[in-house]
Specification:
heterodimer; A: mainly alpha; two-stranded antiparallel ribbon; 4 helices; 2 strands; elongated; B: mainly alpha; 3-stranded antiparallel beta sheet; 26 helices; flat
């Protein structure tokens, strides 16, 4: 399931609580660096950088790692969806 | 022996050993065991015997894909997989296994045949449930035949709806439903049991044991227990102390209403006997007068009203807000109340809050087929997403509170939740599609229901009391109080519809029509469209707390949120015409907030923590959206 579809359905059914709390700390239109991603999600900065290196997180800058909040949410949602899918559906 | 190609044509997909191991999700060693034990004979083609080897292949046997799938669908390699396949918890199956009630197929491979397992496990669950039910009412069996006969006669007389009157005393006729008749019978049996225990000198007989049942008698006490020490005609006021033992004031009051009705019937029953006829048998009549005198003294001693604590509750009802309903739903769905099947409790909660079914009798009497269903067994919806419940009179309170004109509207979000719940039920038990009890203790037993008096569901919902949002005096019936209050006090947007609001509240509650003569007899019933429109403005609210806030602001249920001033330097910017609806100060605030957001959203300002930065952006967005909403109002 895509992040946007999940949000739409979860809001409709009042089950947005399936998303981890740190999603509240990510603003769709703000930009996040590995340090901030590390602060928010609890992963190490190196892990966040690896996500950029592997192309899992789309870079907004040319020579630095920075991702838009919405894209970060989409990626993180893809990581947690297998865990919450059964409860949600 | 046929060639590989011909075999492939004949049997379809053929797999080699490695592929078969993968398909079955097992190990090569286990696969050999299964082959050795002959369970895969139908799927196996031996090279050189049944089929020629495929060119460039070293396989000594091939497996027919379809047969392998059929094997996979029937046999499971572990009890865990079997539990998943038949939808019974692993711990239950493990318990049966350890007791030797179920066992794997013979052989070292320990396969589980889920067809047999399903049948056996369902039967065991039914037996366990029947045993549990038996345990619930053992008291009747402990009484004398005469005592049982009297109680049965009373139940039978009252079930027929015949009048019960004796010298100015009268009582209810009929029972609201069969469950109630069983309940009354059980309560009367317990009362007689307690009186016998008391008269036999057994002490502390009403102490409760596990499962909140009255404790069993010890062997010594059983020897003392003699039901013939008590004759109904010999009931005395002192016996009421035994009846009262171990009961709260409220339960004693409830029991005393049962006893009062029974005793009035009993007097009438005794009076009508020929041996008590005044003219035919004067001695018998004198004896009856003595019985009457004693029983009248007992009747005088029974409590006449509810205990004080309960009467005060009349003024202490809880009327939940929409937000409280949603917080309850959210806590249940997150399983903060620690239940086995949270979705079921959440559905019951929302049905209580939005359909107004009475706890627990009507909750437990609801069947899937009471909803209007489509061909797949899910709720059918109209063009606005509403579903329809036709709750029958005979299963409602007193057999009088069925859906009015066969229609109780189900709001769209509740339709979706119910369908999600049904999907879960059908997944576990596909044969039960479109029929069976809606709420049931065992999912795959659709015809097994919670008893009408079951406290299980209400106890689960009582667990919500420990959360901050839930008032301490909340009881499950408050779900029903709340729904009426929400419709009755709702702000209906279309003024001509307001005059139907009271009636729509009655319809949703399945209450009888009340009001003035004009309202009762000379007023048209609201159409389905009006009914739906009123629910749109009162009960069809969003289930997301943030969206609910906006919805309530939009409908006028709450004032727009207060806007916290944001202290920053003003930036020069042209004032838009739409902003004229805002005061100068608010316009300034809006401009500042927009400017600051545009600046900080690109990069976290130096010295700020990520959390502080995000919180600031959130605050700014809240302020902007509140001001914009006011501007566009």
């Amino acid at each position: 399931m895509m992040y946007e579809q999940f949000i739409k359905e979860a809001k409709e059914m009042g089950t947005i609580f399936y998303l981890p709390k740190y999603f509240d700390l990510i603003e769709d239109d703000a930009y996040y660096t590995p340090a901030q991603i590390s602060d928010i999600t609890g992963v190490s900065k190196e892990t966040a950088r690896r996500w950029f290196r592997k192309g899992q997180l789309p870079m907004e800058g040319v020579n630095f790692y920075r991702v838009q909040g919405l894209n970060l949410k989409r990626f993180l949602f893809g990581q947690i969806w297998p865990k919450i899918a059964k409860r949600f559906s | 022996m046929i060639s590989y190609e011909k075999a492939a044509q004949k049997y379809g997909e053929l797999l080699n050993q490695n592929e078969a191991v993968k398909r079955l999700g097992t190990s090569p060693e286990r696969l050999y065991q299964i082959i050795e034990e002959g369970y895969l004979d139908r799927a196996l083609l031996v090279v050189g015997q049944d089929v020629a080897r495929r060119p460039m292949s070293t396989s000594s046997r091939y497996f027919i894909g379809n047969e392998l799938d059929a094997f996979n669908a029937r046999y499971k390699m572990s009890l865990t997989d079997a539990a998943k396949a038949i939808g019974i918890s692993f711990s239950t199956l493990k318990k049966y296994h350890s007791k030797g009630r179920i066992s794997p197929l013979p052989g070292a491979s320990k396969l589980w045949d889920i067809f047999d397992l399903r049948e056996t496990a369902y039967r065991l669950q039914l037996e366990a449930r029947a045993k549990k039910q038996e345990k619930k009412a053992p008291y009747f069996e402990m009484l004398t035949d005469e005592q049982c006969e009297v109680i049965e006669s009373y139940i039978s007389h009252r079930s027929k709806g015949l009048p019960i009157k004796f010298k100015g005393l009268k009582t209810h006729t009929g029972f609201s439903n069969d469950n109630r008749a069983e309940q009354v019978k059980g309560r009367l049996a317990i009362m007689v049991y307690k009186i016998v225990c008391g008269r036999c000198g057994i002490s502390d007989f009403a102490a409760l044991e596990k499962g909140r049942r009255i404790r069993s008698l010890t062997p010594d006490e059983q020897a003392l227990f003699n039901p013939s020490v008590f004759d109904m005609k010999d009931l005395r006021t002192s016996d009421l102390d035994f009846v009262h033992e171990g009961l709260s004031g409220l339960t004693y009051w409830a029991d005393s209403t049962i006893l009062r009705s029974f005793l009035i019937w009993f007097l009438k029953f005794q009076q009508s006997k020929p041996e008590h006829d005044r003219f035919e048998n004067p001695d018998g009549y004198t004896k009856f007068m003595a019985v009457q005198e004693r029983i009248e003294m007992v009747l005088d001693d029974l409590p006449t009203g509810q205990p004080e604590s309960e009467v005060s509750r009349e003024n202490d009802k809880v009327f939940m807000t929409r937000e409280q309903i949603l917080l309850g739903y959210s806590d249940i769905m997150q399983n903060k109340i620690h239940v086995h099947f949270p979705l079921q409790v959440a559905v019951v909660w929302m049905i209580g809050c939005l359909l107004g079914l009475r706890p627990t009798m009507e909750w437990t009497n609801l069947r899937i087929e009471h909803f209007h269903l489509d061909q797949h067994g899910f709720l059918k919806v109209d063009e606005y997403g509403y579903g329809i419940l036709n709750f029958p009179k005979r299963l409602s309170k007193g057999g009088k509170s069925g859906s009015i004109n066969g229609i109780t509207l189900v709001v769209p979000r509740l339709v979706r939740l119910i369908n999600k719940y049904l999907e879960h039920l059908y997944e576990k038990y596909p044969e039960g599609r479109g029929k069976g009890w809606f709420v049931r203790p065992i999912v795959h037993l659709p015809e097994e229901k919670y008893s009408g008096s079951s406290g299980t569901l209400s106890r689960l919902i009582h667990r919500l009391r420990r959360f901050d949002w839930c008032p301490d005096n909340f009881i499950t019936y408050d779900t029903r109080h709340s729904i009426h209050n929400l419709i009755y006090k709702g702000l209906v947007q279309d003024p001509p519809l307001v005059r139907y609001q009271t009636r729509v509240a009655q319809i949703q509650m399945r209450h009888a029509k009340t009001g003035s003569v004009g309202e009762m007899y000379y007023t048209e019933e609201p159409t389905l469209d009006i009914y739906r429109q009123i629910l749109d403005d009162t009960l069809s609210f969003p289930w997301d707390i943030d969206e609910l806030t906006l919805w309530e602001e939009e409908k006028g249920y709450r004032k727009p949120q207060d806007i916290t001033p944001i202290p920053t330097e003003p930036l020069p910017e042209a004032v838009e015409s739409a902003q004229e609806k805002l005061s100068d100060e608010e316009q300034k605030q809006l401009k500042e907030a927009r400017a600051e957001l545009a600046t900080i959203r690109k990069k976290c300002p130096k010295g700020w923590t990520t959390v502080a930065w995000t919180r600031r952006m959130k605050d700014l967005k809240t302020t902007i959206s509140a001001l914009e909403r006011r501007m566009n109002a």
